[in-house]
Design brief:
The complex is a heterodimer of chains A (397) and B (291). By secondary structure, chain A is α+β, with helices and mostly antiparallel strands. Chain A has 13 helices and 19 strands. Chain A is elongated, with a radius of gyration of 25 Å. Chain B has 291 residues and is α/β, with parallel strands linked by helices. Chain B is built from ten helices and 14 strands. Chain B has helices spanning 19-31, 57-64, 75-88, 102-113, 155-167, 188-196, 214-225, 249-254, 260-269, 278-288, and strands spanning 10-14, 34-39, 47-48, 51-54, 68-71, 92-95, 118-120, 126-129, 133-136, 145-152, 172-177, 203-209, 231-236, 273-274. The radius of gyration of chain B is 19 Å and the shape is globular. The two termini of chain B are 19 Å apart. The chains are: A alpha+beta (397), B alpha/beta (291).
Chain lengths: 397, 291
């Protein structure tokens, strides 16, 4: 799992390490946007959502006056972009852009390294460029212990710029400027444990500067423990009302509880299991026999009784849920622990909805005994259990 | 003939005194795994579960002749533990720790690549050669000696497949859970050649899932190597909602790979039988295995 930073949060990180970003102000109200326009002049008002395609969705407006900024901010703050309500806008001074480049870093799982990617064809259509003219994308996989060497970045730059005739004359100067920029961006990605760190577009201004006109940063949640400062900054933004990622309220609650949960709104069957593959398969099984899963909840390896209790409470917090399918194949997870959690949760939460438990694996006898004594009949076959829960839920309607 | 581990494998456990470490070491001992040492910095000279504890992997190897590491330490220390095992020159490392920062594993796998150690995991259920040895979490009762090789990304689905194959009487040569993390020590294409070199493995079950391109690369390997035994595949996550992703960098690198259908198509085109359900896997194995 990763944490996606908003544009202004990413740019704050860029600025911190000396990557130039345009001056800007965060606004959570139309009045604040108007004030930003008074201060900065002509500005772009940009929706702060953790997802691409906001321009096409009407989430960006360029305005000349504070009045216009007020009006456009009011409009954008009322939008919901691909499921994310807009809670703030970033008002940013305009740039005189001569050329748009792309500079990004991402995890390449096949090569087991970070990839450093450069293209002279920056802007929104970069994915299409990658698919149709891959030669216009230059990629480097730096040594994880050394990072990108200057000569490697120059090679990358000359390779990428070869496809941009307009930049032919400036290529030497640009390559030199890209060396420290790419090295800084790479160091930032490593320092923040980022799996995506992207500047798109990277603006080459009319007066020859390289400026990060937009930014995306996605950091590894597993490394959160060593990034207390970043966590504190993001928590402050959260108090300001941004929502960590403007996410689904059920998913936000799950995150607070420390659960791996994906909400599938409208479904009727809660699904809990141990291991991502098993839970995905649980969803597949429910769907194959005509049921509609409401969620994906992975209690992970070695789940305690308390975690199972919390998971059940989480799943049941959506009133659409009419029954729960718990699918446990114990390995590191022990059947008796899970069974105790299920029984506890049922008694404490007063659960009366259908509960179907499929349990096998480590300590399964003990787990099945605990369940049976509490009046919950455990199954051993997952497809059988899926059919049972779907019949109980759909039959009860 | 198994792959990776057998009755002679000598295992040291990094993290033997932890709650999970001691529980699973005991399970492994009950299974018959030759656990010869524990490594816990600062507790060398002691003993746990009937085996001596050493401060370092180097001392454990010198003292016991261990050749394989079972790494079950908390995430902040796991990559370092893997690197220590590789630096000493062990033959095999199995790391089950879940939640290791991915850039730690980028560095650890880069280091391991320069050594003689083969790494399985992290965030994996481990390896089992039924009747001989197991390292990791695979429940003791599911396996049975036999002739099918299993390689899977998901832990729990690994158990499902092993149990199904055992109950049907086919059994396994070795089952390998390679793990679910984005950066892994071994992927399908690292394990499949080992099964290819094992005449006792008459068929291979490959259990993949959405995300990444390991399954596509496995399909390419099956095609290009002329692998001559049946491959039965299963891909989980067919009904999973498309992930909410961000930025373009991931798509530039991975293109259109990663969807369940893309993986199913690639494996089918390579001649694998792709099962619709885990239960179907066992039926298809039966259909393809010579009696």
């Amino acid at each position: 799992m990763t944490v996606k930073l908003l544009e202004y949060q990413a740019k704050r990180q860029f600025a911190r390490v000396g990557i130039e970003v345009p001056p800007g102000r965060l606004a959570r109200t139309p009045d604040e946007a108007a004030a930003a326009a008074r201060e900065l002049g002509r500005v772009a008002v940009k929706a702060q959502v953790p997802i691409g395609g906001r321009g096409k969705a009407g989430g960006i407006a360029v305005v000349d006056t504070p009045e216009e900024a007020h009006r456009e901010a009011a409009r954008i703050l009322a939008l919901e972009i691909r499921g994310y309500p807009v809670r703030s806008v970033w008002c940013e001074a305009g740039l005189e852009i001569a050329h748009e480049l792309y500079l990004g870093i991402t995890l390449d799982r096949d090569r087991r390294r970070l990839a450093l990617i450069l293209s002279a064809a920056g802007g929104m259509e970069i994915e299409e460029v990658a698919a149709t003219s891959p030669e216009r994308i230059a990629t480097l996989w730096p040594d994880p212990f050394a990072g990108p060497w200057p000569f490697q970045v120059r090679e990358l730059a000359f390779s990428a710029l070869a496809h941009a005739p307009a930049l032919a004359e400036a290529r030497g100067r640009l390559a030199s400027a890209l060396v420290p920029l790419a090295q800084t961006l790479y160091r930032l990605a490593v320092d923040l444990d980022a799996v995506t760190c992207e500047i798109n577009p990277l603006a080459l201004t009319a007066d020859g500067r390289l400026v990060a006109a937009d930014g995306k940063l996605e950091v590894d949640e597993n490394a959160e423990y060593r990034h207390q400062e970043l966590a504190a900054e993001l928590a402050l933004d959260l108090e300001g009302g941004d929502g960590r990622t403007g996410e689904d309220p059920f998913e936000a609650e799950a995150k607070r509880r420390g659960l791996t949960y994906v909400h599938l709104p409208g479904g009727t069957i809660g699904c809990i299991g141990n291991g991502a593959g098993l839970v995905m398969n649980t969803l597949d099984l429910v769907q194959q026999v005509g049921g509609r899963p409401n969620n994906f909840l992975d209690v992970g390896g070695g789940a305690s009784a308390e975690k199972v209790r919390s998971s059940l409470a989480m799943v049941l917090s959506d009133p659409d849920v009419r029954g729960v399918f718990i699918n446990i194949f114990g390995g590191i997870t022990r059947g008796d622990e899970v069974a105790r959690g299920i029984v506890q949760a049922r008694d404490e939460l007063g659960i009366t909805l259908p509960l179907v438990v499929r349990m096998t694996g480590t300590n399964e006898e003990e787990g099945r005994r605990i369940l049976a004594e509490a009046g919950i009949v455990p199954g051993t076959s997952a497809p059988e259990a899926a059919r049972t829960i779907v019949e109980l839920v759909e039959g009860a309607r | 003939m198994p792959i990776l581990i057998d009755a002679s494998t000598r295992v040291l456990v990094q993290g033997i005194t932890g709650r999970e470490g001691s529980f699973h070491t005991r399970q492994m001992q009950a299974y018959g795994t030759r656990v010869v040492a524990g490594v816990v910095p600062g507790r060398g000279g002691g003993e746990s579960l009937g085996v001596p504890i050493f401060d370092t992997v180097a001392e454990a190897v010198a003292g016991t002749g261990a050749d394989t590491a079972f790494t079950i330490v908390p995430p902040p220390f796991a990559a370092d533990a893997v690197i220590e095992a590789a630096a000493v020159g062990l033959r095999l490392g199995v790391c089950v720790t879940e939640g290791i920062p991915v850039l730690d594993m980028v560095r650890a796998t880069a280091f391991v690549a320069g050594t003689t150690m083969r790494l399985i995991g992290p965030n994996c259920p481990g390896v089992m050669t039924p009747g001989q040895s197991k390292i990791g979490f695979i429940p003791n009762h599911v396996g049975r000696p036999g002739r099918v090789g299993v390689v899977a990304r998901s832990g729990t689905l690994t158990y499902e497949v092993i149990q199904g194959l055992s109950e049907a009487g086919y059994g396994e040569t070795t089952a390998v859970g390679i793990g679910g993390d984005p950066v892994l020590g071994s992927t399908f294409v690292d394990i499949l050649p080992l099964f290819a070199a094992d005449p006792a493995t008459h068929a291979v079950v490959l259990v993949g899932e959405i995300g990444g391109s390991d399954e596509e690369r496995a399909a390419e390997w099956i095609r290009s190597s002329g692998f001559d035994r049946p491959v039965i595949a299963f891909i989980s996550g067919r009904t999973a909602p498309p992930g909410k992703r961000m930025g373009h960098a991931g798509a530039i690198i991975s293109g259109t790979t990663g969807s369940a259908q893309g993986k199913i198509d690639a494996l089918s085109a390579a001649g694998a039988d792709v099962a619709g359900t885990i239960e179907d896997v066992v039926r298809l194995v039966g259909a393809r295995l010579a009696p």
